[in-house]
Every structure is written in C-alpha cells, then in structure tokens.
Amino acid sequence: MIFTLLFFALFLFFIPFTGFLLSIFLFCFKRLRFLAAFAFFIPFTTTYGAIAGSWGTGMGLGALEIHNFVWAITKVVASWFGLLVGAVIGCIIGIGAGFVTNRLLRRWRLGLSKA
Q1: If you write DSSP's letter for every residue of the chain in order, what string do you get?
Q2: Which residues, at least 6 apart from 24, have a Cβ–Cβ distance to it below 8 Å?
Q3: Residues in CB range of 38: below 8 A, 6 or more apart
Q4: 19: which residues sit within 8 A by CB, 6+ positions away?
Q5: Which pLDDT band, with edges at 50, 70 and 90, does 6 fall under?
Q6: Angle at alpha carbon of residue 55, lines to 85 and 62, rounded to 5°
Q7: Which of 114, 32, 30, 96 is nearest to 104 (CA)?
Q8: Which of 11, 15, 32, 43 is the most exposed place for a label (fewest CB within 10 A)?
Q9: CA-to-CA distance for 94 and 109, rounded, in angstroms?
Q10: In whole angstroms, what separates CA 9 from the centre of its chain?
Q11: Can you tell me the distance from the alpha carbon of 94 to that of 50, in angstroms, rounded to the nearest whole number?
C-alpha cells in the first residue's frame, strides 16, 4: 500500500513539478526559452498518460473477474505494459504541445511587433 502511495506521489506531483521548475529555469535564459514549453509539457503529459494507461489496463482486466495466480501475474504484466504505452503516448502529446505552444507564442509575438 505504501509503495502505491509513493508511486502515485512521484508520478502525479513530483515529476510534473520538476518539469515546471525546469521550465522556469529555462525561461531565464534567452537562448533556451524555446525549451521551456517542452520542459513543462513533456513530464506532465508523460506521467499522467502513464498513470491513465496503467489504470485503464488494470481496471479493464479486473472487470473480467478471473481469480487465479496466473491471471494475477498477467494483470501485473499488462498494467506495466499499459504504463509504458501511456507514457509513450503522453510523451508524443507533450512534444506536440511544446511545438504548438512555441508556434503560438512566436505568432503572437510577431503579431504584436507589427502593430
């Protein structure tokens, strides 16, 4: 039980918070400002995607209500696989959000300089 709570604390708070602090740090340097959006979005979406993948797989297999030792091992392996797939999908979404944010900020900044 304590392992699960520490796991969720790590994934739901500490990793996204570290990305947030890194994005603030990168925003202080003019040449590295474009990385701030990536540093914020990638840890956030990756961790939440991983949790969603693990929970979704575990709940989906748990709904089948088969109770034996081999099925329990299968559910654990499938939950870890769901964690990895969710993390990959979340990372792709985070990279896309970083590109979109940089593009919108660049367009907004250029639009303000023309006015």
Answers
A1: -HHHHHHHHIIIIIHHHHHHHHHHHHHTSGGGTHHHHHHHHHHHHHHHHHHHHHHHHHHHHHTT---SHHHHHHHHHHHHHHHHHHHHHHHHHHHHHHHHHHHHHHHHHHHHHH-
A2: 36
A3: 94, 95, 98
A4: 39, 40, 41, 42, 43, 44
A5: confident
A6: 115
A7: 96
A8: 32
A9: 22
A10: 14
A11: 12
Q: How many CB atoms lie within 10 A of CB 61?
A: 18
Q: What is the pTM of this model?
A: 0.79
Which backbone phi and psi does 28 adopt, to 5 degrees?
Answer: -75, -20
Q: Is 29 left (phi over 0), alpha (psi -120 to 50) or beta?
A: beta
What share of the chain in percent tops pLDDT 70?
A: 96
And the tokens for 56?
Answer: 């979704």
Q: Given a cut of 70, is residue 114 above it in pLDDT?
A: no
